[in-house]
Amino acid sequence: MSTTVETASAAARTAPAAVIVAIDGPSGTGKSSTSKAVAAQLGLSYLDTGAQYRAITWWMLNNGIDVQNVAEVATAADKPVIVSGTDPAAPTITVDGEDAAGPIRTPEVTSRVSAVSAVPEVRARITELQRSIAAGAEVGIVVEGRDIGTTVLPDADLKIFLTASPEARAARRSGELKGSDLATTKEALIKRDTADSSRKTSPLAKADDAVEVDTTELTLQQVIECVVTLVEEKRAAK
Ligand SMILES: Nc1ncnc2c1ncn2[C@@H]1O[C@H](COP(=O)(O)OP(=O)(O)O)[C@@H](O)[C@H]1O
Ligand SMILES: Nc1ccn([C@@H]2O[C@H](COP(=O)(O)OP(=O)(O)O)[C@@H](O)[C@H]2O)c(=O)n1
């Protein structure tokens, strides 16, 4: 018995403490690409919180919920079972056991997700899920979203807030959506950012202690290197 206790405390002395990294910012700033690469490089878990809000929105649309009706959305908020896989090399998301990775990226879900994510009951439920996933990450986790540094994980070891000009963000998004018009993409992106930044409950915002990185003139590789360096500094100081 005493051997087990001694072994456990020796392990606690040598094992590095889990590192928690929060990466927030508007659409197209590079959160997902950066977070996945940083997590993979440093052996951390990865959580895409936008995918969870998209998943709950997809479930509402599939189940006849009027997503403009706040009361209806609030009542249904705890019904779908959402499970996120946190391997940065192959992140997954299921809703009631069904793979939702493809359907949550449709234009319909993209245009409805801000309305659903603004409902406090939805945020409370998804925030609780995010905190329990982060608490279970043994080595550490990179969590990306809009309110991670301000609300979900205010005690994160490192907070990054990514920005980029609307033009750069629209060009990046347009590159992903085949056949999409740049002006329309930019308009839709600004509309979603405005809705996300102006909602009452945990809006998109930079935490006071976040490091802001403007990615407009940076390559993705430069952003990844910058964040990896910042995480390594935090780890060394722990
Ligand atoms: N610094 C960058 N320079 C050029 N393209 C980038 C950069 N960062 C990300 N991208 C590209 O822009 C698109 C959107 O990036 P993504 O990581 O999905 O952004 P977000 O998660 O913030 O919406 C992707 O195609 C990605 O490869
Ligand atoms: N922490 C988060 C993450 C996303 N969201 C919502 O989910 C939507 C989709 O997030 P996303 O990260 O998939 O968006 P993009 O990758 O398309 O920029 C956002 O527009 C927000 O409405 C949120 O409210 N809080």
Characterise this structure.
GO terms for molecular function: kinase activity. Belongs to the cytidylate kinase family. Type 1 subfamily. It comes from Streptomyces yanii. Helix content is 52%, strand content 15%. The protein is of the alpha/beta class. It has a single domain (20-29, 48-237), classed as 3-Layer(aba) Sandwich (Rossmann fold). The strands form two sheets. It has a five-stranded parallel β-sheet, with helices on both faces. Strand 4 and strand 5 form a beta hairpin. It is globular and about 50 Å long. Adenosine-5'-diphosphate is lined by residues 25, 27-33, 172, 175-176, 215, 218-220, 223.
Strand order in the largest sheet: 2-6-1-7-8
**Any low-confidence stretches, pLDDT <50, length ≥5?**
1-6
CATH superfamily membership, which one?
Answer: P-loop containing nucleotide triphosphate hydrolases
Mean pLDDT: 93
Structural class of the secondary structure composition? alpha/beta
Percent of residues in beta strands? Answer: 15-25%
Bound molecules: adenosine-5'-diphosphate, cytidine-5'-diphosphate
Number of separate strands: 8
Family: Belongs to the cytidylate kinase family. Type 1 subfamily.
GO molecular function, one term: kinase activity
Enzyme class: transferase
Subcellular location: Cytoplasm
In short:
The protein has 238 residues and is an alpha/beta fold.
Q: SSE layout and pairings?
A:
Blueprint: H1 2-14, E1 19-24, H2 31-42, E2 45-48, H3 49-62, H4 70-76, E3 82-85, E4 92-95, E5 98-99, H5 107-117, H6 120-135, E6 140-145, H7 148-152, E7 158-163, H8 166-176, H9 182-198, E8 211-214, H10 220-237
Parallel strand pairs: 1-6, 1-7, 2-6, 7-8
Antiparallel strand pairs: 3-4, 4-5
The chain binds adenosine-5'-diphosphate and cytidine-5'-diphosphate.
Cytidine-5'-diphosphate (CDP) binds at residues 27, 32, 49-51, 53-54, 113-114, 117, 145-148, 192, 196.
